[in-house]
Amino acid sequence: MDTNDTNQAAANQPDPHKPRKWPRRVAIGVVVTGAVIGGTLWYLGRETTLQMIAQKVASSTGGKLTLTGVSGSLYGKMHIERLVWRTDEQLVIANKIDLNWSPAQIVSRGILVDTLHAANLRVETLKESTEPSTMPVKLAPPFTVSIDDARLNRATFVSKGAETHIDNIRLRLEGNKARWQVADAAAVTPWGDVAAAGTIGAQRPFKIDASASLSQSQAKAGASAAQLRMKVGGDLEATLLDATGQAGRAVGDAHFELSPYAPIPLRSLRINGRNVDPGFFNPALPTADLTFAVAGKLDDKRGISGSVNITNDGPEGTIDQQRLPLRLMRGQLGGSLDALQVSDVLLDFGGAGRFTGTGGVQRGKDEEGVGTARFTLHTDRFDLKQVHGSMKTTAIRGDIQVTNAGKTQTLRANLADQGLALAALATLENNVVTLREGRLSAGSSRVDVAGSMNLLKEKEFKASASASRFNPVAFGDYPQADINATVNVAGALAPAWRVDAGFDIRRSRLFDQALTGKGKLHADAKRISGIDADLALGQNTVAINGAFGGSGDKLQWKLDGRQLSAVRKDLYGAVLASGVATGTMAAPRTTFDLNANGLGWVAAQRKSANGALRASGEAWLAGTEGARFVEAKVKGTAQGFNPAAFGSPLAGKINGSFDASGRSGADWRGAVDLRVQDSTLSNSPLWGHARLTADRRHVSNADVDLHVGANVVAAKGSFGLGTDQLSWRIDAPQLAALGPDYAGVLRGQGTLSGTMDTPSLTAVLEGQNLRLLGTHNIRSLRASANLGAGRGARDALSSDIQLLDYVNGETRVASASLKTEGTRGAHLLRAAAVGEAFDANLEVRGGWAGDTWSGTLAALQNRGRYALALQAPVPLRISGAPGSGVMGLTKPERIAFNGAVIKLAQGSITVDSLTKNGPRWNSRGHADNVPLTYLAQFSPAIRENARGDLTLGAQWALDLRTATATGGAPALDGNVHVFREKGDMIAGGDSPVPLGLRQFDARADVQGGALRVRVLLDGARTGSANLDATAQLLQGRLDRDSPLRMTAKADMASIAWLASFAGQPGLELDGALRLALTGAGTIGTPRLDGNVSGDKLAVRWAEQGVRLQNGELRASLAGDELQLQRLTFQGRQGTASAQGFLRFSSGLAAANLKVTADKLEVLSRPDRTVVVSGNAELLRDATQFTLEGNVRADRALIEFAPQGRPTMSDDVIVLGRGGAKPAPSNKQAEMPLSINLRADLGDEFRLRGLGIDATLAGNVRVRKVGAAAPRINGAIRAVDGEYAAYGQKLSIERAVMTFSGAYDNPSLDILAVRKRPEGEQLTQTNVEAGVQVRGTAQSPDARLVSTPNVPDSEKLSWLVLGHGMEGTSGNEKDVLAAAAGALLGGKGGTGGFQQKLASSLGVDELGLKQANGTATGLESTVVTVGKRISSRAYLSFEQGATTASSLVRLRYKLNPKITLQFQTGTNTALDVLYSWAFD
C-alpha cells in the first residue's frame, strides 16, 4: 500500500466535525448593519439630533431663519417654540408650532402629517419688492404630501403700519405630482367667516378649480347674514373669477379676468349692484338706493375701454337729512396704456347741480411714473344748500383740475359765486404734500390756509391759517360773526404724534358780542404742557394755563360768565367758576368752585330770578377701559333759588345747603344731605331736610321731613337689607298750596322693608277732590296695601285701591278699583273700571318667585260699547332680569302669553302667542267673523259712512326687535292679513250704496326692512282694484323719505259708492273710472307713471244746485306730474272743459289748470240759477297761487232766504254731532293767492232777497297780490228793480256801487222812492218821498228826499204811511218812531249810531221806545239803557223823554220756564213770568 495515496485520500474526505464560517459572517454583517441602522435610527430619533438638524437648516439660510425651543422627535411629534424668517422685504414670525407625522409611510404614501398646529403667525412687509413675480415652472412635490389637520389660531399681516388679523384658520392639504388640493378650509376675518375648497394643477398652465364664501359673522337679529360667494376657474395664465353677493336688500355680481404674472394682472372686469344703501352698512352714512355698473377691459394691444355708471333711486335730500345728494355718476375710459382718455364724466347732484369732466394721460415709452396727466371737473352752477341744509344758497361755477408732470402732482381749484370764491393750489412732490394756497372768501370774509406734510419718516407737518372779517353767515345758516384770527400748528405723526399749536383772535365779534383771545400749547399722546390760553366773549372770559397729564402737572382753569346771554339769548344770570385739573389722560380729575347768581332761562321768571348758588367739590374719571364712570363730591348753599326759572311749574324762593357725593354707571351710588329753611314754594312756606344714601340695591339712613305750607312729606329709615325698615308719611290737607294746578286733600302713611327682591310694604292712602298737574282730577281716592316678608311664598299680599270720578281731558272714568288678596306665592288680583263707553273687569291669579311671576289671566270682560270676554283662562308668565327681584317685573325681560281666545259680541280674536324674550317681541294670532259694525265703534268715520253685514277675518305673525337688539333702529318682520269672510258693506249716510263685495283682501308683509302692501278689491258696484306697493323702512319706521315701488290698477263701472267718502251730505257721483299706475321714488315724493280715464261721469249735489253730467276724463301721470289732457262736463245747458297739469313733487310745487265754460249752468235750483261763460287759469308755483280769467254771467237768479229765521246760538252743542275740533296750534301758513279776474254780470242777472228785487249789470276787475286784501275796480248798477221797506215797495231810481280799490268800501249812489200813482201831479199835499244813500259802504250818508221838498218829518210820513203828518193816528206814530229808530240806528254789521254809542259806553242796550199807556207822541217816548250782568240777570233803566218818570228793572231767570222781574221807581212791582214752549 502506498502511504502517500492513503494520506491523500484521507485528506480528500470531509470532516464531519469541522464548523461552517459563512452563516456567522452573514449574521455578523446583519448584526453590524442592524446596529448601524438601529444606531442611526436611535440617533435620529433623539431630541438633540432634531435640535442639531434644526440648527443646521437655520445656518444654511445665512441667518434668515431662526428656530428656538425645538423639541420632540423626527419620528413623531415635534414642537418649535418660535420660528423667525427675515429677509430685506419680509419678516415672518410663528410661535408654538406642533407637528405630528408618520415617517413609516413615507415610501408608500409619502409625507403624511397628521396635525400641524401653530398658536400665531405674524407676517410683516418691511419693504415692497421691486422684482417682478414670475410663473413657477412646476408645483409638483417630489413625493406626495398630505396634511390632515392644519390649524392656526391667529395670523397677523402688517403692511405700512396697518394690521389685519385672521383667526381660527383650519384646512386640509394634499399635494402630488398631478395637483394640490385644499379642503375644508375656514377662517374668521374682520369681514366675516371664510370657507373655501379647491384644487390647482401641479404642471403648467396650473389648472384652477376653487370656490369660496364669505359670510357675515354676526348678523342683526332677525336679519339674514350678508353673503359673498366666489368661483375661480381657468389657470395661472388666464384666471377667471366670478362672485355674487347679498347684504340686506343689496345684491351684486362681478366677473374678473386676470393674468396673475403679467405686468398688468387685470385684463377685464365687470361689477354690477343694485339696492345698495350705505345707511344699511353704517347708520352714520346717508340713506340711498344705489344701482351701479362698472366695466373695463385691457386688450392684447394695450388698448383700454371701460365705463362707470352709478344711479341713486333713493330719497332726494341733503346730507344733514341723512340722504345722499348724488343722483348720478358716470364716465367712460378709452385709449391705451400710453394714451389714456377719460371722457363723458358726469356727477349729477340733482337740484344742487352737476359737474362734468374730461381728462387723459400721456406716457412716453421710456417715461417713468404716471407720465403727463390732466383731469378737469367743471360746473356751471352748484348750490351748496342742496348738499347741506345749513349752507347758503349758491350758484357756484368753476373748475377743479388735477395734473401730473414728471414726479409732481398738482391740484388746482377755482370755484366762484357772487361774492363767494374758493381757490386752492396743492402739490405732491418727493413724498411731500404742500398746500401752497388755500383761500375761501365771501364778500369781505376771507380765510387763508397754507401748510406742508412729509409722508415719510416722522411725517412732520406744519400749517397756518388766518381769518379776516370771517362771517359764517356768508356761507350758510350759521351764527353772525366777524372773526379776525391766526392759527399755527406744527408737529409729527410718527412714531408717536406730537403737536405745537397757537392761536390769536383780534378785535372780533360773535353773537353780536366782542370776541378776543390768544393761546398756545404743546401736546402729545400722554401729556399737554405749556398751556396758556385766554378767551373773552362779551363780558365773559375763560382762562386756562398750566400742564396736564404728567406727574405733578396742574392745569388751572377759570370761567367768568357774567353775561350768559352773550352765549344763548334766553340765558340770564352770571356764573363764576374755577378749578385745578390734575391726573392723566386716562384718569383726569378736577376741583371746582362755583358761584352763580340770578340764573335761569324762562323769560317770564327773569325779574324774580335773583337767587344765588354756591358750590365746591371735585370730580374725576375712574374705572377700567370699557367700564368708565364719573365720581364727584359737591357741597354748597342756595339763596333765593327759583325752580320756575329753569322750567319747573312751581315757582319759589329756596334757601338751604346741600352736601352730595356719588358715582355714575351700572353700579351707581350716591349720598345727599339737603337742608331747607325760610323758603317759599308757590307762595307757601317751605322748610325741612332730606338725607339719604342709596345705590342700586339699597337705601340707607333716610331722613326726610319737608313742609310746604300745611303739607308734609316725611320718611325715615333704611331699605334693602332684611332687617331694614323705611317709614313714610304724606299729610297734605292743602294741595292747593302748590299752585293752581293742584287741589284737594291727600293723606297716607306706611312702611317699606325687606329687600329689592322680596320687599315688604304696608301703606294707606286717602284723597278727596284731587287735581294733579292741572289735568288729572279725582273726586275720591282710597288705597291700602300689605305685603309681608320673611316667609317667602307664604308672605301675605293684599291691596285695595278705589277711585271715583277720574277726569283727564276727554277721558272719564266713573269708578275704578284694584284688589289683591292671598300670598306672594299664590294671590288673586281683580281690577274693574266703569265709564260712559266701557264696563270692564279683569282677574289674574298666580304668584311670583325670585325674578318671575307666573299664573293665569282668569277673566277679561267688557260689557260696555266695546263688548268682549275672555273665553277661558290663559297662562301668563313674566320674568325680570336676573337678580332684579320684584322691581324687575316693571321692566320684564321675558313674557309668555299664549292661547288666548277673546269672544266679541259676534266673532272672536285668538292670540296664539305673545312673547317677549329680552329685546325681542313675537306675536301670532287670528280673528274670525268680526263684523264691520263692531269695528265702527272705534271710528266715527266708519260709523257715519259705512254699515252692513260684512264680516272680516284676519291673521298676523309679527317679530319685533327693539333698538337694544339691533344696535340701531327697531326692526319689524312678519305679516298682517285682513280679508272678507262674508256679507256686504253699505257705503254712504244720506244716499246709501250697497257695494256688492265679492272679495276684499289686504296684506302687509315686512321682511328685511321692506314693507310690502297688497290690496285686492272686487265688487258688483266697486268694480275691481288692486294695489301692490313696497316701501323701505327708515330707522325702523315708514317715513316720507322711504323708497317706494308700487303698481295699482282699478276698473270701476260706477264710482257712485265713492261719494260717501267725500264728506259732503247729498253729494252724488256716477260714471266709470279706470286707472293703471306704476310708482317709484319715496312716500313723500312719489314718481307715478300711468293713465286715468273716466266716461259718463256725473256730479249731482241737489242742495247746492250742482248738476254736471256726461263727463269725460283723460289724464296721464309721468314722474311727478299729472297731465290733465281732457276733462269735460255738460250741465243742464252748456259745457265746461279743463286741461293742464299738476306737479305734486315736494307737496304740489306747481300747477297750471285752464278751465273754459260755454253757457254752462253751474247752479240749478229754484232759488239759485247761474249760467256762465268764460275762461280762467289757475297757476301755482313754489311761492303762490295765481288765478286769472274772464267770466260773464249769461243768466243768473239769486234769491236770498228771508231774514229773521231762528238760528241756534254759537254756544249750543247738539248731542251726537260732536263738538268743534280745536284748531291745531301748529297750523302752517297758507299759500298766498294772487287774483286777476274780470267779471261781467251780463244782461240777465237778477237778485232777490233782503227786500231787493232788481236786475244788476256792470263789470268789475278783482285783483289780489299775495296776502294783501283784494282790490276791485269797476261798477255795479241796478238796471231796474224795487226795494221793500216799511211795508212798501220803493222803486229803485238809481243804484250804483263804484269800486276803486278796497273791496269792502265802494262808493254808493242809491236813490229809492215811493212812487205816486202814474198821472198824479206832485204837490205839497201829494208828495213822492224816498231815501238817498251816498258816501261809502263803511261811512254811508242816508237822507230823506222828496218831490217837492218838504220837512223831514213829512218825508218820513209820506215814505212810510203814504200821507203827511196831518191826521196821523197813535199807532201810525209808533210806526214812524220805529222807522226813525231804524234810520238812526241801522241793523246788522257793526250797527248804527245807537249800537256804536252803546258799545262805547259798555252797555248792551241803548235806544228809544214807546212806553206802555195811552199817551202818544213824544210824551210817551222813553230812553232805555240795559246791561246783562250775568247769564241769568239783566238790569235796565228807563227815563221819560219829557217827564220825570223813571224805572229800574231787574229780571232774573230761575230756570228756562220761570223768570222773576222786580222794578222800582215811578212804579214798584214784582212779577213772576212763566213761559211755554211748543216744539
UniProtKB/TrEMBL annotation:
This is Translocation and assembly module TamB. Keywords: Membrane, Transmembrane, Transmembrane helix. It comes from Massilia yuzhufengensis. Its main location: membrane. It is a single-pass membrane protein. The keyword Membrane applies. Residues 1-11 have a biased composition (Polar residues). The chain crosses the membrane at residues 26-45. Residues 1131-1478 form the Translocation and assembly module TamB C-terminal domain. GO terms for biological process: protein secretion. Residues 1-21 are annotated as: Disordered.
